[in-house]
Amino acid sequence: MGYELRRDNPATDADTSKVLDLPSNLPLTQVNTTFSDSPTNISGLPINNLRFVTRNEWGAQPPTEPLGKLKHPVPYVIISHTATEFCDTQSTCTFRVRFAQVFHMESRNCSDIAYNFLIGGDAYAYIGRGWDHVGAHAYGYNSRSIGISFIGTYNTVAPSDHQMNALQQLIEIGVKSGKIAADYKLLGHRQVSKTPSPGDALYNIITTWPHWSPTL
Length: 216
What we know:
Elements: E1 29-30, E2 51-53, H1 55-58, E3 74-81, H2 90-107, E4 117-119, E5 125-127, E6 145-150, H3 161-176, E7 180-188, H4 200-206
Parallel strand pairs: 2-5, 3-6, 3-7, 4-6
Antiparallel strand pairs: 1-2, 4-5
């Protein structure tokens, strides 16, 4: 297991997580997205079946202090990985998210889980700080971005098409709801911090997407 750490404010800002194996069984909420004219995404997978796991469903603790508000639409989407073990079931992914929050809050003195959203190997979108609150995932960019972290370590192993489909749907929802700018820049965590995140295998995929930008 491993973890990544980058800070804006050492007292409140981190993007690190660490996981343990402990089963959990919480219900999921399905959200049918209706924001696209196309029935499939760039991987040929359907775009109307993204599932969200709410904070209540994954057992989130409340923030220890009020979170800053994002000014919408944000110009950046920043992709990271948690640099931990993978998860491929509802129970393991749910626990990894819950433990990430505990680690961020208790070991890194963050007020909440660092990420806005996480994507598990189950291809569900786990709500962290959500669309409206400033994250703690990327030095200097937290107030201008939505941070999305893939649970696992993607140095040599690439996410599945279903996980990438979930990412595309999530971003699309953000754009259509006015949370993310239509001309947003898609960045890898390594482009804004000294880190190998989101791992070579994942980074090599997002660099082929239309909104990826080699410049900040």
